[in-house]
Amino acid sequence: MPTIGKFKLHAPLPLNPRESKQLLNLLTTSFRQKLDKEHGFRTESDIEPSTDKTPKHNGNARQRRRSHSDADFRPTDRHMRSVLTNPLFSYVPNAHESKADRDPMDVFDEAVAKGMMNTHYARTCLNAKKREIIQSPVLSVREGMRDSGAGLKVLRWLLSSGTANDNEFLKDGQFAEIFMQYVVAEGLQEAAWKWIKRAFDDYPRFSELWGPERAAARRAMVRPLMYLVRAEASGPVSLDAAYMCISRAAGYLKGLSALQMRQLLGPPGWFLSHETIMSHSDHLPASELAFDSFLALIPVMSREVEYHFAHLQLLHPSRPSASLALEFLRKLDTPRDGVTPLNRASSTYEHSIIQLSLDTAKFLLENERFDDAQWVMEYLRTHYPRRLGLAQREQLEQAKAEASSLQLLEGLSLA
Questions:
Q1: How much is the pTM?
Q2: What's the sign of the alpha-carbon dihedral 264, 222, 227, 308?
Q3: Where are the domains of the chain?
Q4: Which residues lie in Basic and acidic residues bias regions (predicted)?
């Protein structure tokens, strides 16, 4: 082994290849020994007797195995591995690939390596990759997204660059929407739950705010959970995972009042209720357990508990029923102090009631409860004669077509 003194400080440059290699080996060895000494690292060779009785022809193999194992424990090697695997330094350009044929995530890697990446560019790459997957012969877009590994690649950049040190990056809604779809597809939800819990931890500060600051703080607290729920509900899949997201989030909020929980669970809960009602046929059937867990949380998600129970019960995966819907509609039809509740309802709420009435009538017709169906249609004709547009009439005609006895439906026309 050469000594450091051999290489004078002002030695003529360049060194020949042999001297360069010797200097590099010497510096590397010195660097490792210094760090190992600082961290108190001891290898097997440090504690083995100096006399080695192992046959010489086995010594090299044993040393190679020990060196490979040491790499898992040396602080030096762990540090160097973390540097070399960092997305900021790991990009290797492909000189033979044309720009037209480049994978969008190769563009992502290059931009990360050059320090140009931000959520806007990341969103562009993820959207381009998804378009590429949609145009490919994959049977499932979600499976194609899973196999792409794009979500993990972006997650590593978020972590290594420090972008994910807070939840500010989720303010880029378009990025958060597409990124969370990859997170779900690739099974990386635990990363999202860290952001959700971090957001919920800000609730004590939220309670002290007022006005625009309070509204902005609420959006920030709700945002991670909302994007995760939307991603879990995306595509022709069961809503089970989305339902269980709400249940898990509620578990983090134990100790808060129903009103306080509603401030955090309300928006994602309303979205999921709407998705269940309006896009029921686009999803695979939900399990009874997941659906019931969602129903149980309606009181801490919305003030309109009776409405949500009534509408969702029509769609129960194992026990669908129109009883709550009929009870709810009849209550709305009953004047209180000379004024029906509908007279004070907003246009959005009225639209919800019309949809509930149509879904109830369809359910009753399919189950041959024609008298109850006729009452519901009369209710609609009385209270919403002008708001029943073409789409609603088409829904009614479809329900009539599915009924088993046309003769009993002659008096149900809205015209």
A1: 0.73
A2: positive
A3: 321-415
A4: 37-55, 68-79
